[in-house]
Amino acid sequence: MNARMMTALGLALGAFAAAAGAQTIAITGGKVFPVSGPPIENGTVLIRDGKIVAVGANVAIPADAQRVDASGKWVTPGLVNPGNQLGLAEVGFGADANESHARTPDNIAASFRAWDGLNPHSVYIPATREDGITSNLSIPVGGLVAGQGALIDLLSTSRADMIVKAPAVMVAQITDDQSAGTGARGQLLAKLRALLDDAKYYAAHRAEFDRGQARTMTVPRAELEAMVPVIQGRLPFLIYADQASDIEAALALAKEYGFKLILGSAAEGWMVADKIAAAKVPVIVGAMNNIPNSFASLGTRQDNAALLRKAGVTVALMGNAGGGDEELLNVRNIRYEAGNAVGYGMSWDDALRAITLVPAELFGAADRIGSLQPGREANVVVWDGDPFEFATHATAVFIRGQRQTDTSRQDLLMQRYKTLPPAYEGP
After folding, report:
1. pLDDT in the model for residue 18
2. Continuous segment of H or E residues that includes residue 237
3. Confidence (pLDDT) at 14
4. Which residues, listed in sequence order, are joined to residue 352 by a DSSP beta bridge?
5. DSSP structure string for 238-304
6. Per-residue pLDDT reduced to its tens digit, 362-385
7. What mean pLDDT is predicted for residues 208-233?
8. Are 300 and 268 in contact (CB under 8 A)?
9. Gap between the Cα atoms of 361 and 378, Å rounded
10. Fewer CB in a 10 Å sphere around the end CB: N or C, the chain?
């Protein structure tokens, strides 16, 4: 193929892509839950160029629009999971396919950008997407300060295309002494305090540091530089803490250093819900566990999310909050977390917000995802019933206006064994 033919082909492909991107889609007749406003009966969501352009009961539909009939169905924003290692770790390959854990001598990896190792073609992503999850906070784990996480849309195109916001958060934990490289909780907190002190000093004395006239620091420059947006309140600091006393310690640190705290896990959060609410600190929790998995979470109870919300705490719900080896596979459990939260006292509306708009707000992306409003990304899911019900399925999933039709590994296995060979003998 000569250069002229290649150029012509390139122009044709570009025109085709532009035409595809300009597609107009109208999702009609469903019960629409914008989240940012009240439900709309017999509503329409109009999508153009990957964006939502109109939502309502009397939306004019262009003649050239592709219609998706949602009559008798429910329409919601794509679900947003606020924290796991989706796209950073793969199934069955151990450390060879795990990009979520930076190893450093001091267990502090603030400069680690987890999304640099993000795999757009992870086998977990299609299965997650099929259950209506369209965005995920992919975060590092391990150590005292694990590093920076990114908010991504679950596309399977390229790493750059997936990213909604990066960095979206700095991640740390004050629950596991061993992971932090310390022998006691007091030592762990002292180590974190020293890091915050150094970052605060460094931010105010960069010139002296460059001249070699600064005081001795506990970590290298890259870690200090990464912590500056945290200490200045520009990047949220997601700290995982379960024990009530650890939660109080995190609240005290946030007040002293002025950083923007988000609490993660918070198994005993209900015990200090009034203090969390007074500090106006949001919490990311689950609602499917009532059994402690460590000494630090002896107060675990299944209505934790509901009690926190009742106290006035902003709550986001995370899929498979119990962790374990199946955590990535079960990101889809986020809607069951929401259903359980409702069963244990949270309102249905709060539960839907907790897996859509709330996480989008926490990570600075509410202007793009988390609700059905004009100007937002067209991350939209059509359900054949209440999404919190176990038997409900997502019948159509759109991410940035593109309908997701790929096949997951689970689909392939189901198709393979759906028809058993004639010679098969059952148990």
Report:
1. 40
2. strand 237-241
3. 42
4. none
5. EEEE-SHHHHHHHHHHHHHH---EEEEE-TTGGGGHHHHHHTT--EEE-SS--S-SSGGGTT--TTH
6. 999 999 999 999 999 999 999 999
7. 95
8. yes
9. 17
10. C
pLDDT of residue 408: 74
Is residue 426 packed enough to be buried (19+ CB in 10 Å), middle (13-18) or exposed (0-12)?
exposed
- Which residue carries 């309102």 as its tokens? 347
Does domain 79-369 correspond to CATH entry 3.20.20.140? Answer: yes
CB 143 within 8 A of CB 114: no
Which of 3.30.1450.10, 3.30.870.10, 2.30.40.10, 3.40.50.720 is the CATH number of 23-78+370-421? 2.30.40.10
CA–CA dist 200, 34 (Å, integer) = 41
E strand intervals along 121-209: 133-138, 145-153, 163-173
Cα(326)–Cα(209) distance, integer angstroms: 45
Taking the C-alpha atoms of residue 70 and residue 93, their distance in angstroms, rounded to an integer, is: 40
Across all residues in the chain, what is the average pLDDT?
90
270, pLDDT greater than 60: yes
Q: Which sequence spans correspond to the domains of the chain? A: 23-78+370-421, 79-369
Read off the tokens for 329.
Answer: 């596979």
Q: What pLDDT does residue 21 have?
A: 45
